[in-house]
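Reviewer comment 2.1 asked that we show a complete input and output for one of the modelled complexes. We chose the calcium ion case, as it is the one discussed in the main text.
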Amino acid sequence: MTSPTLDRVLDAVFRVDADFNIKFISEPGQRWLGDSASADSARVPKSFVDMLHPADVERFMTACKGTPDTFTCDVRLLRRGKENWVNIRSYQLAAVRQYVMCLIDISAWKTDDTSFRHAAEHDSLTGLPNRAFVKCAVEQHINDSVGPFSVALLDLDGFKKVNDTYGHAIGDAVLIETAKRLLKAIGPQDILARLGGDEFVLILKEKDASAAKEAMNSVLFAIARPYETAPHNTYLGVSIGIAGFPEHGDDYATLLKHADTAMYHAKNGGKNRVSVFAKSSESVDFSINAAIHNGIEEGEFYMEYQPQFDMQRNVIGAEALMRWTSRDFGRVGPDQFIPIAEEAGLMSFLGRWALRYACHQLRKIHERMPDFVMSVNVSPVQFGSDQFDRLVLEAIAETGIAPNRLILEITESTLMHSQEKTERALANLREKGIRFSIDDFGTGFSSLAYLTRLPVSSIKIDKAFLRAIEHQSAETLTNKKLITAMINLAHSIDLKVVAEGVETEDQFAFLTHSGCNIIQGYLLGKPMPADALMKCITPLSRR
Ligand code: C2E
Ligand code: CA
Ligand code: CA
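Response of the prediction step:
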């Protein structure tokens, strides 16, 4: 019995618009479709759907409708008058309303009459290729001498607990969600398969082990995001072992065995990390938690400031935003590291540091502009510590700033789940003159009772509402009405309104018309380092 060969492991990349009109075909794709190396446009239909076998159109559409952001399915494509089985992996480019579709020719699998035919079936839960496919793809890579590539073995940390706590239906949903996150995190030419249970494998084309390790950063972060498992979110991690071809093995069995050894090393080293195979015990681990710890010690965190303007476009303040350039992971956005720091119990420390840093900067700004106001974000977990109010008052005392020049941005969830402790801290700080603003207003619980009950002085309308008024659509009008309603409501109880994410003059004009008080967004100023912010501030003498 001969092993079925894949034509080429990745054959074609298509980009199509929302109606599946073909906008772009990669060069290998053009070759695969046509007889000659050049694209024979007359032979390529205008619509991707026209290329599908009629019997498969419905399955394709269902897969796409189910999860338009990323989906995978097997269909027959009509090519050179013949039908070819392909596996499609699709990613949505939401901003331009297009899809990128990566096609792998799997005809050999589907048509081979041997037992491979069964093996060729994909994992039925996630739709991903399975173990047999991985073996074949790895052997194909080796036979084709495509150069270095790596195999990464992924095993979720904490998945068993999900199954035990929530049952198998939720467990399955978590695995499907994991497959989607992984597909988004990897490159288009990489292959993702599910080995079974909570084990996945990645084949990383043209990447040696150290490049593969780099590529795993986004995978660690993708899995670290909370999973929505009612009634509580679940936090998982992933332990990853990497073996590179040819340095760590020159056949499938050795590569997989060594990736497995490295994966166990990652598990034993504390989980949720990447380990590269090494012959001795010298494997090196990279974990996000350790990197945050290390980053705090090494001074890898810093602040940027995004200016805020009144409606006459004068700078009146700024929001302090945390930044991290990690030695191991490069630039990491706060949306990625803050949830992890919160979960790892590091956020109180980071938040306190951010507050002091911002207050020091504010003190310098006040030498030029005494009425400048600094907004600092506060994570809900920071209220969990008994001394939150004391820490804020210390930072103020240490820097000598006026308390009424500091605004703490808190989220609706902080208020909704607030306990007596939080309310006491808020009240105490308010008494000393510190102000509070509700961040991302309108996205959370939108129960308004707390606005009057708690010492809030302004709301920040979330940028999602502004984005929605940018494109002329049915939602535009609704969102404009919503924004106007939020502004009126806030004004009726004496709250100021900040709009964030203002990117265009049209948005600015609309907000001016609606009576918004303060503007923050790329239109007037992006987040910037402290020295750039200082240049935006008019010295006292020139005002
Ligand atoms: P946020 O509080 O909603 O911060 C506003 C985010 O919008 C910032 O993203 C900012 O760069 C971005 N932004 C500002 N203007 C525009 C615009 O015109 N268009 C678009 N598309 N985006 C704009 P960033 O810096 O990535 O921060 C993300 C989130 O991380 C923040 O969201 C905040 O929740 C959190 N964060 C940042 N720094 C800290 C911190 O020191 N402490 C805490 N607890 N959270 C922080
Ligand atoms: Ca904020
Ligand atoms: Ca916000």
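The CA atoms of residues 224 and 237 lie 6 Å apart. We note this here for comparison with the apo prediction described in Section 3.2.
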